[in-house]
Design brief:
Blueprint lengths: L2 H13 L13 H9 L3 E4 L7 H12 L6 E4 L20 H7 L2 H17 L4 E2 L24 H16 L47 H5 L1
Parallel strand pairs: 1-2, 2-3
C-alpha cells in the first residue's frame, strides 16, 4: 500500500468512528467533504435548527453525500429540546412524566417525538436520560430525570424506549455517571461516586474551569 493510499484509509477509519457537530443551518463544506471521505455520523444541536422543515432539508443535504449517514440529536423534550428550541417544547419532559407516572403517556410522548424526528430525517436520539435524581441539589440532572426512585426511572425509561421504537426512530438512553448523587457537575469538577468515596478522582477530571466543549454545545 502506498503512503497516499495508507493515509486515505487511515482517514476513512478515523472518520468512521467520529460524530462531529457543526455550526449553522446548512452543512458546511468541510462536513460534506468528510462524509465523502468516510464520515458515518453527525449530531445536531439547537444551533442547527430553525424549524422541522429546515431540518428536513438539512438532513437531505447531508444524506445526498451518503444515504446511510447516521444523523443524531439530543432531544429529550421538556426543557431539553433541540427540535423545538425556537418555540419551546410542546411535549412534557422526563420529570413531568415521572410525576404523572403513567407509562402509556410516556410511551405515547416518545412515539410522537420519534415520528417527528423520523420525518425530519433524524435517525438516532440520545434520549431519554436514565439518571436517577438522587440528590435534589445536583446542578445538572434535575428535571431531565424521571425522578429520584430507581424503579420509577427504570419503568419509564423502558416505556420511552418501547414508544420510540414504534415509529422506527431508535432511542439511545443516556446517563451521566455519578451526577444524580452529586452537588457538582462533571464539566467543572469530579462528582464522587458515593458520598463517602475516598478514592482519588481520575486524572482527566477537571477540578475547576469553564464547561467543556461538549457541554457548551448543548
Amino acid at each position: 500500500m502506498t503512503s497516499s493510499k495508507h493515509s486515505k484509509e487511515l482517514r476513512r477509519l478515523a472518520l468512521s468512528v467520529l460524530q462531529p457537530g457543526f455550526v449553522g443551518t446548512e452543512a458546511p463544506d468541510w462536513v460534506l467533504r468528510a462524509i465523502n471521505d468516510g464520515l458515518s455520523s453527525v449530531v445536531l444541536f439547537s444551533r442547527n435548527i430553525v424549524s422541522t422543515a429546515q431540518v428536513t432539508r438539512l438532513t437531505a443535504q447531508l444524506r445526498a453525500e451518503n444515504p446511510e449517514l447516521i444523523v443524531a440529536i439530543d432531544e429529550e423534550a421538556g426543557d431539553v429540546t433541540r427540535i423545538e428550541s425556537a418555540t419551546g417544547a410542546t411535549r412534557p419532559g422526563n420529570f413531568a412524566l415521572g410525576t404523572v407516572d403513567d407509562l402509556e403517556l410516556t410511551a405515547a410522548v416518545a412515539g410522537d417525538l420519534g415520528r417527528q424526528l423520523r420525518a425530519a430525517g433524524i435517525s438516532l436520539d440520545y434520549a431519554p436520560s436514565v439518571d436517577v435524581n438522587s440528590n435534589p441539589d445536583n446542578p445538572i440532572i434535575g428535571v431531565r430525570s424521571f425522578g429520584a426512585d430507581t424503579a420509577l426511572v427504570a419503568r419509564h425509561a423502558a416505556a420511552w424506549v418501547r414508544g420510540s421504537r414504534r415509529p422506527g426512530s431508535p432511542p439511545a438512553p443516556s446517563t451521566s455517571p455519578a451526577t444524580g448523587t452529586s452537588r457538582s457537575t462533571p464539566t467543572t469538577a469530579c462528582p464522587p461516586t458515593t458520598p463517602t468515596s475516598t478514592r482519588s478522582p481520575p486524572r482527566h477530571c477537571p477540578r475547576s474551569g469553564p464547561p467543556s466543549k461538549r457541554a457548551s454545545a448543548r
